[in-house]
Specification:
This protein is mainly alpha-helical.
Length: 184
């Protein structure tokens, strides 16, 4: 079933929308949640929460592409669940976020210099300007929270190359943001 057909089911308030969404995007959403939560039960609960959130947001929202829309919902729900379930310690999602801490502005700095939406727009612009391989490596690590080993397998490169690519891309992002007035 095509995305626009599934969205039409949501707008018709048909329960079949949930079934079709789960069939087409279940594995995708579970993988995102699993990468963050590392628990099958929590990932499944997060997946179910994603279907509820989709039901509650369509209408009024009418996403043209469901994968990124559902992926964003799943990721946000998984990060919220992670925060609730785990004490802050080095490793997992905390390590991924720590890697970006030297590149992204602090929460207070964003409100002082520019709003978060503008920063997100600049990051998107930066990523679109990257060659495909570094962009994929960056997104797999910082959007999907994939471990470097999994990224290396997926891209057919060594873990060392993944780490170096991530380091260089973070440094380029830092310079890019600073040149555009974002205080990092």
């Amino acid at each position: 079933m095509e995305d626009h057909e599934i969205v039409a089911l949501y707008f018709a308030r048909s329960e079949r929308a949930i079934t079709e969404t789960a069939r087409k995007f279940g594995a995708y959403c579970r993988k995102i949640a699993w990468n963050i939560l590392a628990s099958r039960r929590d990932a499944e609960e997060c997946e179910n929460d994603t279907w509820l959130a989709a039901w509650n947001t369509m209408p009024p929202q009418r996403p043209a592409r469901l994968a990124p829309y559902l992926g964003r919902i799943t990721r946000n729900l998984a990060l919220d669940r992670y925060d609730r379930l785990h004490a802050r310690k080095r490793g997992g999602v905390d390590l991924v976020l720590e890697e970006l801490s030297d590149v992204l502005p602090a929460a207070g700095a964003v409100s002082d210099r520019m709003d978060a939406a503008e920063t997100a727009r600049l990051i998107t612009e930066f990523l679109r300007g990257l060659p495909p391989e570094p962009r994929q490596i960056f997104l797999r690590r910082y959007w999907y929270c994939d471990p470097t080993r999994a990224i290396a397998r997926r891209c057919g490169v060594s873990e060392g190359k993944v780490r170096v690519t991530l380091h260089r891309t973070r440094q380029k992002l830092r310079v890019y943001l600073e040149e555009r007035g974002v205080r990092v």
